[in-house]
Amino acid sequence: MNFEAALTIELESIPALNNRVYPLAAPEEKFNLTQPYLIFVSSAGLRTRDLDSYQSGKTVKGELNVIAPRFGDVVTTMTSVIDKLVSMEQRAIGGTGPFIQEIVYRQPVEMYEDKPKLYRSLVEFEVYF
Fold first, then answer.
1. What is the rounded CA–CA span in Å between residue 108 and residue 111?
2. H or E element, residue 70
3. What whole-number distance in Å separates Cα of residue 22 and Cα of residue 19?
4. In the predicted model, is pLDDT for residue 27 greater than 80?
5. Which residues of the chain form beta strands (DSSP E)?
6. Which of 9, 51, 67, 75 is deepest in the core (most CB within 10 A)?
7. CB neighbour list of residue 19: distance below 8 Å, 6 or more residues apart
8. Is pLDDT above 80 for 29?
9. Gap between the Cα atoms of 128 and 88, Å rounded
10. How many CA atoms lie within 13 A of 15 on its CB side?
11. Reported pTM
12. Which residues contact 53 (CB under 8 A, 6 or more apart)?
C-alpha cells in the first residue's frame, strides 16, 4: 500500500471527519458543508540518498487542510488530526502501509475563507519512511 492510501485510512478513522477525507480537492456536487472535512496534498516523495546511491527510504512533504463552518470545529478537528499524525510515528500506517520512522509537523495556521464562508486550519508535515 502506498503512503497516500495508508494516510487516507488513518485520517478517515478520526470520528469528527466522518470519512470525509479527500486528496487535492473535495467533491463539488451535492457536498455537505455543515460538517468538518479534510483535504490533503501529498506526493510520491523523494528517495533518500547516501554517498553511494539512492536508498529505499523516502521523505514525503504534505499538507493537511481541515475545513468547517465553525471556528471551534476547525480547531477541535485539527487537534484530532495532529494527534493522529503524531501517533503514526514508529509504526506501519493503514494496516499494510509504510513504517513511519519520523514525522515533523509545523504549527497550524487558521484562516477564514470569505467566498465559501468556511474556516480552515492548515498544517504542513514531513514524513520519513
1. 10
2. none
3. 9
4. yes
5. 21-23, 37-41, 46-49, 54-68, 91-92, 99-100, 102-105, 109-113, 118-128
6. 67
7. 12
8. no
9. 11
10. 1
11. 0.91
12. none
